């Protein structure tokens, strides 16, 4: 791993989404080009790819990428997913902001996704985040904190705060409106997590326009501008020509571009120029569950 003045966790989202996404993440992790990944444990590919990720335990932080908007839940959700398929983000968000989310169903599904991780790893995850940032939504955040508290995991793992300082977002200038909207959704999340005894990152970047005509390396350099004290950058690498991905997710063309950049020599050169380096935990964080925990 790279040591530098500005350490940051580099987290690949969507492990187990498809085979092509999972293989790309594993390749980058094996090459030391990632320090964390969040797994979609409700996906059918999780049992197949979990052993390979577990084999990298200690080299990469492994978390649960809570999924409430894609595919089938791991158990019955008669109100949220009456036909057996999770709702799109728009519907979930509307329910969240109108108080219409079925709390018991959300808690039960989060618990099932955590169980699926623990069955594969034999321990709790190092962190929890969410597909399409669902973990920060009203109604979901409370359910998540309640489930984790019942499991006695306060102080044992960290949570992704998808928000950042507006001034830092503006300075980076990448997908500005989208990044500000996501930060708005996350308002109050870090404080709620701290009150419940959970640490979060402090600084968040990686929000992308997913435009294949942009230079991802140049954008990545902007993600390192105005880093937070516990900076986290998310990424979405994947292999090319992933037919399954094209059928289920709008982010297709840019994944191989991210994969190519992160395994190239340009990636460490850009980090060095920014005085930044990837780490599996922030320097001030003491060791704890699964090898790491993070101060809030």
TrEMBL record:
<keyword id="KW-0119">Carbohydrate metabolism</keyword>
<keyword id="KW-0479">Metal-binding</keyword>
<keyword id="KW-0378">Hydrolase</keyword>
<keyword id="KW-0460">Magnesium</keyword>
<dbReference type="InterPro" id="IPR006879">
    <property type="entry name" value="YdjC-like"/>
</dbReference>
<dbReference type="Pfam" id="PF04794">
    <property type="entry name" value="YdjC"/>
</dbReference>
<dbReference type="InterPro" id="IPR011330">
    <property type="entry name" value="Glyco_hydro/deAcase_b/a-brl"/>
</dbReference>
<protein>
    <submittedName>
        <fullName>ChbG/HpnK family deacetylase</fullName>
    </submittedName>
</protein>
């Amino acid at each position: 791993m790279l040591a530098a003045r500005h350490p940051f966790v580099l987290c690949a989202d969507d492990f187990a989404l498809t085979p092509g996404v999972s293989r790309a993440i594993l390749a980058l992790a094996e090459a030391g080009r990632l320090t964390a990944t969040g797994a979609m444990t409700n996906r059918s590919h999780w049992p197949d790819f979990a052993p390979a990720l577990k084999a990298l335990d200690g080299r990469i932080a492994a978390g649960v990428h809570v999924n409430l908007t894609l595919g089938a839940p791991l158990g019955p959700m008669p109100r949220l997913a009456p036909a057996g398929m999770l709702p799109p983000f728009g519907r979930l968000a509307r329910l969240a902001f109108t108080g219409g989310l079925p709390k018991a169903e959300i808690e039960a599904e989060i618990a099932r996704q955590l169980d699926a991780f623990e069955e594969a790893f034999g321990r709790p995850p190092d962190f929890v985040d969410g597909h399409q940032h669902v973990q920060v939504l009203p109604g979901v955040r409370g359910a998540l904190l309640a489930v984790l508290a019942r499991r006695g995991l306060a102080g044992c793992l960290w949570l992704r705060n998808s928000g950042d300082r507006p001034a830092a977002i503006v300075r980076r200038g990448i997908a500005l409106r989208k990044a500000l909207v996501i930060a708005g959704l996350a308002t109050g999340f870090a404080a709620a997590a701290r009150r419940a005894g959970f640490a979060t990152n402090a600084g968040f970047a990686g929000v992308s326009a997913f435009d294949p005509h942009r230079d991802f390396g140049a954008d990545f350099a902007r993600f390192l501008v105005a880093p937070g004290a516990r900076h986290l950058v998310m990424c979405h690498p994947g292999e090319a020509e992933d037919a399954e991905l094209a059928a289920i997710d709008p982010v297709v063309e840019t994944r191989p571009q991210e994969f190519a950049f992160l395994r190239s020599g340009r990636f460490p050169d850009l980090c060095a120029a920014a005085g930044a380096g990837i780490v599996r935990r922030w320097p001030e964080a003491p060791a704890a569950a699964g090898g790491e925990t993070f101060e809030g």
